[in-house]
Amino acid sequence: MGHETHEGSSRSAAQGQRADDQPLWCQRDFVVFWGAHALSVLGDSFALIALPLLVLEATGSVARMGLLTAVGGGAAVLAAVFAGTVVDRVDRRRLLITCDLVRMVLYGVIPLVWAFGPAIWLLYAVLPVCEAVGMFFAVGYVTVVRALVAAARLTEANGRLNATAAAAGVLGPVGAGLVAAWSGPAGAVAVDAASFAASAVCMRWVRLSARAGDDTPVPGRSTVRQDLRTGVAFLYRHPLLRSLTALLFGFSFLTLGLNDLVIYHLKHDLGHDDGTVGTVMAAGALGTIAGSLLVARLRRLLGFGPAWIGATALCGLTCAGLGWVGTVPAVAVLAAGFLAGVGIAGTCSMSLRQEVTPEHLLGRVTSAYWTLQYSAAPVGAALLTWAAERWGTTPAALTAGATCVLLAVTALATPIRTAGSSVQ
């Protein structure tokens, strides 16, 4: 898958200071945030399985699944335009709590309505709002990590968060598959809603320090357009971030719909049930755990560039094979490989942004980065699933994967290739 004000905390500078050599599990606020994030992702992993299953159950169409993904992705892109402006101006802890509570209510409506019969229109109404709120949460989450740990610990902290989230992702798909098989996909959405409530409670106990060493005020009267332009300008001036943004634009376009493609391949092409879908997704999440736990070491040993390029190439190769293999274990192994690559590349790029971006710009730069990265991804998801329904999953997955490998090769001609373990 930094902070703005005192965030409700009046602790002294000595209390807010975090030593570089202090183990992460000894930092109370980070540990609580760690748990809250795991709960939130646990719920997300339920929805990741349950919502496509609801669509497939009601329509039998992978194209309709892809359309729902595209609508949700489009809402996230639109929200990303505004997210940086909001995140850089508000109490970020309260923002995260509010995002959790809003998603709790909205996802909670789905099983209540579904109890009276399928209502596809409700998914197209609820998911875009939840995805938009989720984007505000995601931008805030990136800035919060920098407020919780020292700069030297950022890659490690992001890796731990992603690994734990992936561990929750192992339990989530299995649980979602079992719940869906027992009570229907709507029951899995109800679990999703409950997880957001638990996450909000945990976030209530997280304390965030004031911005350390950065007294630059956030302009109070700038417009959303000006804020987005500020973030884009920073990305453009930084050669490494500029190259990453351009390449990830293509990567997101190619892969946003891959989850729908895997579900369709398992159920339609291979004829398996919801429980198998959940099991395969859980096995795939093991790849995220492995990648997230290895990323800090890989970046130290190889440097940023080789780690990111190798991970992206791994994503392309495994994606290319996903629609071609015909057994459940093979699909699970390739899904794990793909998600391992995503975990390594994603953690590297997130940590890089946190390291090189001034604190007062972090929300706006993250917002601009994700707006540009995902601006075409909803269209890509719709096209990928449409192509799979028209020509089959094999050519669709092969084309997307081969193009991802080409993106990794292209990175060799950019500043990414020579970027070392410490990038400033």
* N-to-C CA distance: 24 Å
- Main beta sheet, described? none
Please provide the ordered H/E string of secondary-structure elements: HHHHHHHHHHHHHHHH
Please estimate the helix content. Answer: over 70%
How much of the residues is beta strand, in percent? under 5%
SS summary, helix count = 16
- Mean model confidence by pLDDT: 80
Oligomer: single chain
Number of strands: 0
Identify low-pLDDT runs.
Answer: 1-20, 211-218
What is the overall silhouette?
globular
Rg value: 20 Å
Judged by helices, strands and strand pairing, the structural class is mainly alpha
Task: Write structural notes for this entry.
With 424 residues, this protein is an all-alpha fold. The protein has helices spanning 13-16, 28-59, 62-87, 92-114, 120-148, 154-183, 185-203, 224-237, 239-255, 258-269, 274-302, 304-322, 328-356, 362-374, 377-391, 393-411. The longest helix is centred in the N-terminal third of the chain and has 32 residues, at 28-59. It is globular, with a radius of gyration of 20 Å.
